[in-house]
Fold this sequence. Notes:
The protein has 4 helices and 4 strands, in the order αβαββααβ. The protein has 192 residues and is of the alpha+beta class. A hairpin with a 3-residue loop joins β2 (128-132) and β3 (136-144). The protein is globular.
Amino acid sequence: MKKHIQYSLCLSLLPIFMSFANEQDSKQKTSGASSYQQEAKIKINTFATQLKGQLQQAIKAGGLISAIDICKVQAPLIANALSTDSWQVARTSLKVRNHNNVADVWEKNTLDEFTIRKEDGQTFKQLKQEQLSLDSYRFMQAIPTGEVCLACHGKNIDENVQKHIKKQYPKDQATGFSKGDIRGAFTLSKAL
């Protein structure tokens, strides 16, 4: 009888312990996600700053044709250099230029969601998404189409620039954008 009472008492307390454990696990995941998000944002800022600087130098030195070549070579190198400590850093879009950057299912769904959220009035700073699972953390942040982007990604691209794009990227889809469109997104993942 005494063992039965102890067993019943343990069973009655189990939901309380499980609730506490779930709350603690949730706090740890939230804290972990927040920490990972900070790391992701630093990597995105580094990627954007380095690529923008190199593109500006290329445009000054040799025009848009040089910028296309720099983007093709340097963007993957920057992404690889930032892919350390179990992180993978890349960019993707619904309309890719480099077919190595085609969105997977989660990325595509996130980009579709970004489009809806932007139409609902969210700013680019708000267009970010994270996913935390037992074995990975993923983060995406939308990339806006700026005025300078239109020279290679817009609707009225210079004929020589367009020829060079087609030469470098025969399956290019990344044109027809307007200023303020979602050009794509930085996409990062970390193996846990």
